[in-house]
Structure formats: structure tokens, C-alpha cells
Design brief:
The chain has about 220 residues and is an alpha/beta fold. The chain has one domain: HUPs (Rossmann fold), CATH 3.40.50.620. Helix content is about 45%, strand content about 10%. The chain has 7 helices and 5 strands, in the order βαβαβααβαβαα. The protein has a 5-stranded parallel beta sheet with strand order 3-2-1-4-5, with helices on both faces. It is globular.
């Protein structure tokens, strides 16, 4: 991993500043290192009111903040407005992963990211969400582009962070950093559905807050 020669990445229109929406530290690590290696000025925006429950949200946020602080990257801590999130997804509680509920969730998070970018002079936004193999990249990019299109001078960077080994480097970096390893996307409905699947498969329910990348033992018992 340390010997990998990163290509120089160029944001849309050659922009020199990027606002990066971060969903969690494991997804953010590789994306942020790739952008930093290209000497692009970036700020991280942590806005994820979908994450449930609150202690899970705080744990994911702190892991994200720790990684940014260690590298001198500014990290904006946005609101945890869960009431608005539940209002947005009302009626979509039974939707599957990658379904309409996820589209609405991405829209909400990217709309707030785009608003912050427009208010603070960022010409480009992007997100760490797309590096996860559990996500539909086209769905994410569509939501990002739609949010950016609200503003005349804002673009969404649709770069495929998974390609050329990006997904594997994400795992390797997470092990190197000892990141908290969450086992569901984040919302109460994904936790419900993941536990349902695990029980149907003869596995135990998720035990939150105890798994970390790169450790043989289960931590936090």
C-alpha cells in the first residue's frame, strides 16, 4: 500500500478546492488520501442524520474527526437533525437497501453539502459514499449531480473511487488505522434489515461498537 504510485487526480473544471461529504472513516480514508496526494485543497463535511442510534453516530463521527485531525484536514461537523431525516423518509420504511429510501437519504445529505459549498465558495463537491461496494454508484452520483445542479457554479465530482484497487486500499487503510468497523449502513431501517437477515441465516444480532479493523479480538466487551 505504501509503495502505490497514485495518479494525479483533477477535479471538474480543474478546481483547486473540493468539499468532501464523508459518511464514515473507513470509506473516507482512501478517498481523502487520494485527493491529498493530488495536492487538491479539501475540507470534509460530516452530515449524516441517518445514523442511528446517537451513540453509533458519535462513534462514527469521532473516528472521522480523528483521521482528519491527524492529517490536518478541516472537518465540518454539521447538524444531527434526525427529525428532518425521518420526515424525509416517511412512508419509505419498508424500502430495501439501494431503494427509494436510500435515494431520498442521499438527496438530503447532498443538498445540505451543496448548500454549504455554495455559501463558502467551494466549486466542487464529492462524497466518500461511492467507494463502498455495498452502494449503487450510479444512484449516488445521480443524487450528487442533482444537488449540485441547484447552484450555477457548483459541480459534483463523479470519480470512481473504487477503481484501480481503491476498494482494497480502503480495507488496508482501515486496518492500518484501526477504524471502528460498523456492520450496517447506518439508519434504523438498515439495522433492522441486517439483523433480520442475520437471524434468518442463523447468526447473532449485530453487537454495535465492538469491532475494529485489524484486530484479532473483539474489542469493547
Amino acid at each position: 500500500m505504501d509503495t502505490y504510485e497514485r495518479p494525479v487526480l483533477t477535479p471538474p473544471d480543474g478546481a483547486e478546492r473540493v468539499l468532501v461529504h464523508s459518511c464514515c472513516a473507513p470509506c473516507a480514508g482512501e478517498v481523502l488520501e487520494a485527493i491529498a496526494a493530488s495536492e487538491v485543497d479539501m475540507t470534509v463535511y460530516f452530515y449524516n442524520p441517518n445514523i442511528h442510534p446517537r451513540d453509533e453516530y458519535e462513534m462514527r463521527k469521532q473516528e472521522n474527526r480523528r483521521f482528519c485531525e491527524d492529517r490536518g484536514i478541516e472537518c465540518i461537523d454539521a447538524d444531527y437533525d434526525t427529525d428532518n431525516w425521518f420526515d424525509r423518509v416517511k412512508g419509505l420504511e419498508a424500502e430495501p437497501e439501494r431503494g427509494e429510501r436510500c435515494t431520498v437519504c442521499f438527496d438530503m445529505r447532498f443538498e445540505r453539502t451543496a448548500l454549504y459549498a455554495a455559501e463558502h465558495g467551494f466549486p466542487v463537491i464529492t462524497s466518500t459514499l461511492g467507494i463502498s461496494r455495498w452502494k449503487n454508484m450510479a444512484q449516488i452520483n445521480d443524487c450528487g449531480v442533482r444537488a449540485a445542479d441547484r447552484y450555477a457554479d457548483l459541480s459534483y465530482w463523479t470519480f470512481n473511487w473504487r477503481k484501480k484497487g481503491g476498494s482494497q486500499r480502503m480495507i488496508e487503510l482501515s486496518k492500518r488505522e484501526g477504524f471502528y468497523q460498523q456492520e450496517y449502513c447506518g439508519c434504523v431501517f438498515s439495522l433492522r434489515d441486517t439483523n433480520r437477515y442475520r437471524l434468518e441465516s442463523g447468526r447473532e444480532r449485530i453487537e454495535r461498537g465492538i469491532k475494529f479493523y485489524g484486530r484479532d479480538e473483539i474489542c469493547g466487551r
